[in-house]
Amino acid sequence: MNSLEQAEDLKAFERRLTEYIHCLQPATGRWRMLLIVVSVCTATGAWNWLIDPETQKVSFFTSLWNHPFFTISCITLIGLFFAGIHKRVVAPSIIAARCRTVLAEYNMSCDDVALQKTCTSLN
């Protein structure tokens, strides 16, 4: 393989990688928004649950029954983590890190800034 073919292959790989990461961005943004909303709901519900004077006087399960907003948001947050939201939120970073590892074996590099510039130029 001559250097011209190698350069073309590298450019094709870079285009495909940035295209793939670009396609992940909308889904990643939605997952991040969902995680933020559920986290804020859980924190708000926890605050209301903790400042309620009845919480100290009744049993744990009765206290949870008295605060359905906190209970539902907490169960939803736990369910999201079991469903793998923590992986979906950082999927582009995981892909870039794995590509960086593979490229390092060939004495090549890949950084998030270059990928981000390329991704934003695709918009």
UniProtKB/TrEMBL annotation:
The chain crosses the membrane at residues 33-51, 63-85. The gene is CNEP1R1. Belongs to the CNEP1R1 family. It comes from Trichechus manatus latirostris. Keywords: Cytoplasm, Lipid metabolism, Membrane, Nucleus, Transmembrane, Transmembrane helix. It is a multi-pass membrane protein. One of its GO terms (biological process) is lipid metabolic process. This is Nuclear envelope phosphatase-regulatory subunit 1. It is found in: Cytoplasm; Nucleus membrane. One of its GO terms (cellular component) is Nem1-Spo7 phosphatase complex. InterPro entries: NEP1-R1 (IPR019168).
